[in-house]
Amino acid sequence: MKRRPPPKPTETETDDEKREHKRLALRSAAYKRFSERGYHLTTVDDICEEAKISKGSFYWYYDSKQAVLLAIVDGWSHDVEVALTEHFRSTIESANRRAAVTAGLQALSRKLSRLMPLWLEFLSQAQREPAIREGLQLFHRRVRRATHKLLGELVKDFESERESEALATIIVGGFIGLMALELSDPDEVTFSKKVASFMHLLGHSSIDAREETKAEPPAKKLTARVPAPRAPTSKKKSKR
Prior knowledge:
Number of helices: 10
Number of strands: 0
CATH architecture of the largest domain: Orthogonal Bundle
CATH topology of the largest domain: Tetracycline Repressor, domain 2
Order of helices and strands: HHHHHHHHHH
Shape: elongated
Structural class: mainly alpha
Helix content: 55-70%
Radius of gyration: 28 Å
CATH class of the largest domain: Mainly Alpha
């Protein structure tokens, strides 16, 4: 997701607002350097140089480079959850919800694709640093929660809550996996086409069934008429 530059401080800002502005500026600087050099090679000095502040000032706001990283990931998870919740809220009453959801997923993927190289590096760091792993867990849980909520509005025939949560997890896993595949093999895998095909398959569920019900009543099944069996008749023996 494209990082917006932090707003410029104003004379009317409180001390707390000024501190938050400085934290945003540091996160923006760190994100830029992480994207250019990678998390492992970026140093606190690099971030301070980008943000144009002293190293002592940096430690006033963040304890370490890892703390800045976790703040970035937390911001991502919040942004994605809000995007999923707000963007798809209008699709619930859409005349063609499947097309609306497909377009929304494709738009979200275009934003997240910019994060993918850096996100993969963070994922590799998670194997060695428990704090980063916990930050990514929160990211994934927020995305799954928003997806689960969306599915609850679109598909009403789940047998259990566990079934709905499982599908939400599979969708999020497939979403992330498709972006990773597109990053490594763009000639063979295109996210927009694959997600459209997936939504077409999902359309066989009640997502489309409910739309068809609103549009027109289901046609009656034509069955061939089978003549009713005749009652058995008793045959009288002829007298000779």
